[in-house]
Structure of DNA 3'-5' helicase:
Amino acid sequence: MSPLVVANPVEPAELADALGLHRPTPEQATVIASPVEPSLVVAGAGAGKTETMAARVVWLVANGIVSPDRVLGLTFTRKAARQLGERVRARLRRLAGSGLLDRLDPSGGLRSTVVAGEPTVLTYHAYAGRLLSEHGLRLPVQPGVRLLSETSSWQIAHRVVSTWDNELDTDRVPPTVTADVLQLAGELGEHLISVDQLAEYTTWMCRVIENAPRAKGQRAALPQKLTEIMAAQHFRLALLPLVEEYHRRKRNEGALDFADQMSLAAQLASNYPSVVRGERERFGAVLLDEYQDTGHAQRVLLRALFGGVENQPMPVTAVGDPAQAIYGWRGASAANLPRFTTDFPRHDGENLVPANDFGLLTSFRNPPEILDLANAIAEPLRARGLGVERLRAREGAGPADIACALLPDIRAERDWVADALARRWYATQEETGKPPTAAVLVRRRADMAPIAAELRARGLPVEVVGLGGLLDEPEVADLVSTLKVLADPLSGSAAARLLTGARWRLAAADVAALWRRAGELSSPEKPDAPELVAERVEQAGLIDAIDEPGSPERYSEEGYKRIRRVGWELSALRRRLDQSLPELVADVERTMLLDVESLARPGSAGRAHLDAFAEVVTDYAETAPTATLLSFVDYLNTAAHAEDGLTPGEVEVVPDRVQVLTVHSAKGLEWEVVAVPHLVQDVFPGRRRSSSWLRTATSLPAALRGDSQDLPELRIADGYDRKEVQEGLELHEAGFVEREQSEERRLCYVALTRSEHALIVSGHWWNESSSRSKGPSEFLTEIGDVLRETGVGQLAEWAPEPSEEDENPLVSDSRKGRWPVDPLADRRTGVQTGVELVSEALSTVDEIESEEDDPDGWLTDTDVLLEEWARKDDRVRRVPLPSRLSVSQLVALADDAGKLAADLSRPLPMEPNSFARRGTEFHGWLERRFAGDQLIEIDDLPGAADFGEAPDTDFEELQTEFEKSEWAARVPVAVEVSFSADVEGITLRGRMDAVFRHPDGYWEVVDWKTGAVPPESRLPALAVQLAAYRMAWAALKNVPVEEVRAAFHYVRANRTIRPADLLDPEGLRQILRDIPEA
């Protein structure tokens, strides 16, 4: 069967003209108008793949090949899904409003189709989750199964390890074993392998090595290499019972982790033809983004649903770049991209042949000089069959600004990188009035803090994205230390951080005296034996000593004052521990002046870190079974292991700071200025050593992996002697080393192609600890060679190689520092001078006049406030939206952005009124009537956005009127449904009162109103609330928003209002995009 052929199709250029967009390039046009059959698109870095994918969808819709609601787009992150979805929907709206449709279909049917339908754009995991929710009972998986976060998975696995009462021969600590259990469980799920299969293969491997007879001249004992390999196999076998127990506990708790979700979805698609038929009927065109990062389970799922030789080919377009396949360490298989053409064959007459492949090789991001470097780095990969040609720059691309250096040591390198970046930052700021976007990309997290310190020393605002995550950021670390001290008085390390940190700066002698005091309090009598001293110190709590420091003579005068002050603050916080967790954390932030400290740092990064942590607190409080301070501190300790310190999952490029992050985190992003330091041996690329399954117990044997045919072959068998076994294993390992080095090269390619204009690359000879010099890696050497050959860029310095007799100057160089660290450092003199000037000015005030005319300053304050009020209409203030908005605040934003801005900039307590109390009482009555749970939040009180207020005496009348309404005889399918949705980067939160299901299939969300019916002029703004509820319910049920309706029911008037023109999700996003200055 041949593919669908469209008669007189609209050409991509004509379509772009009709939509008022730039015409696509010839290679983009080829992809957009490619045949209606499976196709692979190899898209280089910055080649406009998202734009091309969106244009492909619009071309299919405009030519009547598929309706918008039958388009499925899948990608990896919520951010990417949001961007692709928004771009497709924006172009479909343009298509609906264009005159092109009138020519293509005068009847108007095509326009109706375009207006009525919306494409489905999800992450791969979200799509798998939807399949499970709809078909999981076939396996069986219950519909209400809970999806575990990484931290929740860790908590379950950690309980398994901590309570394990069987033998486990290892010297690893429980957190490390927990990570091992999770890694191995994830590998099994990713490759669809059972515990029994893995146990059988690993046992065979051990038997082959143990039973191999000695070769001539070999010793009786196993060689060291074989001993190490055997130890890894035995430990893998020992982990398998813990993995089984982890799975059992998840089942008992009705929970799945991400690996379960994908593997179960793959099982559904592979074993149930009705699921396949249903998905192919639902979707007529599929887009698969970043296909090179898919794993085996995802490949099985997608091939079973939309590909395979047994199914009719359909228009599935996979987009990816083999040069950016950098996630092999977490289960991705780079081989999935080239195998797409055979996994998704097309028809050629009556025969099935591999799908067509196309290329997008013009970069719209990078200047030609940067592409020359990236292409040079990728050249060895192409020689080994990478499958992508060299990238080329767009016509008219400007020149790059490239600087490269090899420095004598790592400190000199940091100085050079920071100076080079600072020059470009300040020059751009002076020239354009705003700084450039800028980033430093490192291979190792350990290199983040030192380079960030050098950047800050040059006055640059810095955001460290990572550094072990949010928990290692200074503001957050101080906040967490305080929480730990409040939860556990024996948390000495947390108390020590507070006392010696930037705020209190307690001297070493005072800290030592405090420890001695703690020891006295824990054991008043002197111990009889020296060995009891250590035990006494462990039992001592610094907090006890802070509360009762003893005689002031023990400490310095200033030290004693500071100890007393921190004690008073902690005591005050302990008296307020009955607050909710989010309130308590906010209280700690204010009390410890962390909000002030964060604002004192250049840029907004400090405040951003505290806001991100507040998001973590709120999410935990909403999802944890017991959201107490103790459980939250345990959660944080867990998260430090499970998620590398709550590392933000999606990074946003920000223009007001230099971002420091890992290269892996930078994929998909771009900055005007990019620095890539430490291109040295054993760092970037990393040390040439194998981390294959032979020595890593948490990795699956190559033969069991889904991509085994692309991995080095293991050539050993029963009956081989020990020499033959060892040679086979060494050859196998060597193949894995080569694969890992190829991934490092792809990672370097990704780093270089992040730059839009300026690129700074560097390396060094000496690090701070090694006795042997490192020197430039092959990557830096290749970059230097290209710059010398082409004459572009600047080779600032190329330090000569040290001789073998030279010693590391940094090892013998003793660095002096002051402790505790002075947070003002070089600014102290200037700040101190300013303080003295202000104090002197204040002391010259005429005290007599002040006491007689305005003793408390009230008149002065009043004059200032009146003057401010008089000027309020003549000035404009920018008030940033918070990262979270309630639905009521969204309504206020649509109704009167200026008033909301004023409320946000100067928040005041809500005035107590009978309205809220009546709303609460009526709401509780309705919940009892519907047999629902009474869960009320202050911000979601019924009637919080109502117009008008009735007295409390109306409560019985409200009950009577409700019983007369159309809703009294109906039963809701859900009441009090909380939701949280991401809209334009803002988390929108709310609670739906009730949801009903109509006989004809659609849903209706109803919001009970206890106030008066508002005038019609206010309904458009109030209807924003219903639009938000409608969007949220559609997302919760995974149904098109058109299948959900929404209404207000004004109880006292017994009137239901169903606005006919509710905003769609794009309309809600537009409200946030079009925020006026307020």
In short: Confidence is low (pLDDT under 50) at residues 527-539, 847-852, 905-914, 932-952.
